[in-house]
Design brief:
Length: 202
Amino acid sequence: MNILILDDHSLFSQGLGKILMDHYQNLKLNIYKSISDLNSAEADLKSLDIFISDIELPGEDVFELLSSIKRHYPTLPILIISMHNKLSVIKKCKELKIQGYILKDDHELVTKAVDCLLGNENFYSENVTKTLRIMDRKGNILTPKEEEIISLLANGKNNHEISEILFVTYNTVKSHRKNIGRKLNLATNAEIIKYYFENYIK
């Protein structure tokens, strides 16, 4: 079996590699710290059984890489192992049809996740699935205009400024703001802003 790990944290990737080497016989393992290293090595992705990656590497666009892999190697299973449990990040992975996503705190699940992906099954850990339920329960309820308003609120704009930016009346903004609070069960601007940064910012 041939597995590639892409992660800039050496201690984590080496520890992950040991878990995999102990679990799977005849495993060929390649570890890279960056997309730049991966490209320089001209890694043979078509020979891989699993591609494992963190979702954030300093100064690099992991989502661009994942999109490219999905275009050129559509059958290659991808497992994300990340510290990020944010709705916006997980939502992007779902949109790219990434087969697996677990948190670094869920490292004990790595072999289970790999086994599922090898068996053509998706695997999102329970912690990640809980976050996805927010999208089912809340994220799909907000209209694009409401999402635009909470983005502006999070960036320090008040209702008057938002009405000018969106070319709507002050009362319209207040009405949207009330609907947002009702839908998300959040009472204050501080709670809405906290929700935004937890769920919409990478």
